[in-house]
């Protein structure tokens, strides 16, 4: 088939236009555990506290596959091509559990809705209020949480905690790293409170 010169130019223009409209590939991200927890090689063999984690409620605007950035008091930016590798409602308690297993030296960690395979001393549950990037280059985590003793009606502790971390980079991987640092800080706070509770319990039995 013979193509006249002007037809060739038209086909080339169409090709360029279609190429310019190509959808960019999605990038996928995951929360990371504390560096010392992720790098630990020795297995956890100490008899630490039995802890059930979850459920942790996630608000509807965060309960999606895309990363979310706050652009103002009432405006959100949904990152269509920057996505979580797994659901945030599952990733948050899972990484929290990995952190707490290391900090408490305990392999006896259950993540809701796992079945009870051993006695549980404490239960940790809560709600994410904020977990996102902000316009000033920071990541924020705000979580309302409770620590409960099984078969005791009154919670041992109810608290709301807020953490911020500077995003050290321009890409979304840096944002996820900052979010992971916030989760690590929350893990440390929970671990300190559990350890203090254990210490008081031991002294009360003496």
H/I helix tally: 4
The structural class is: alpha/beta
- Terminal residue distance: 96 Å
Which strand order does the major sheet show? 5-2-6-7-8
Question: Any idea of the CATH class?
Answer: Alpha Beta
The appropriate CATH architecture is 3-Layer(aba) Sandwich
- CATH names the topology as Rossmann fold
Topology, element by element:
Layout: H1 5-20, E1 27-29, H2 35-38, E2 51-57, E3 66-72, E4 75-84, H3 88-103, E5 109-111, E6 122-133, E7 138-148, E8 157-166, H4 172-205
Parallel strand pairs: 1-4, 2-5, 2-6
Antiparallel strand pairs: 3-4, 6-7, 7-8
How would you explain this protein's 3D organization?
With 206 residues, this protein is α/β, with parallel strands linked by helices. It has a single domain (28-205), classed as ABC-type transport auxiliary lipoprotein component (Rossmann fold, 3-Layer(aba) Sandwich), CATH 3.40.50. 34% of the residues lie in helices and 31% in strands. The chain has helices at 5-20, 35-38, 88-103, 172-205; strands at 27-29, 51-57, 66-72, 75-84, 109-111, 122-133, 138-148, 157-166. The strands form 2 sheets. Strands 5-2-6-7-8 form a 5-stranded mixed beta sheet. A hairpin with a 2-residue loop joins strand 3 (66-72) and strand 4. Helix 3 (88-103) packs across helix 4. It is elongated and about 70 Å long. Residues 5-9 have low confidence and may be disordered.
């Amino acid at each position: 088939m013979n193509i006249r010169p002007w037809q060739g130019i038209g086909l080339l223009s169409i090709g360029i236009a279609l190429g310019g409209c190509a959808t960019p590939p999605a990038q996928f991200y995951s929360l990371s555990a504390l560096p010392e927890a992720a790098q630990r090689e020795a297995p956890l063999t100490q008899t630490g506290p039995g802890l059930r984690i979850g459920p942790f409620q996630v608000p509807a605007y965060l309960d999606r596959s895309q990363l979310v950035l706050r652009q103002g008091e009432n405006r959100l930016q949904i990152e269509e091509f920057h996505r979580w590798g797994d659901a945030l409602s599952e990733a948050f308690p899972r990484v929290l559990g990995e952190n707490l297993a290391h900090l408490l030296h305990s392999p006896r960690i259950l993540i809701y809705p796992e079945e009870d395979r051993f006695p549980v001393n404490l239960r940790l549950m809560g709600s994410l209020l904020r977990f996102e990037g902000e316009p000033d280059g920071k990541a924020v985590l705000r979580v309302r949480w409770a620590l409960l003793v099984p078969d005791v009606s009154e919670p041992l502790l109810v608290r709301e905690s807020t953490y911020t971390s500077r995003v050290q980079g321009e890409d979304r991987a840096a944002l996820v790293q900052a979010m992971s640092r916030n989760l690590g800080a929350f893990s440390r706070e929970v671990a300190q409170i559990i350890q203090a509770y254990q210490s008081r319990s031991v002294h009360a039995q003496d």
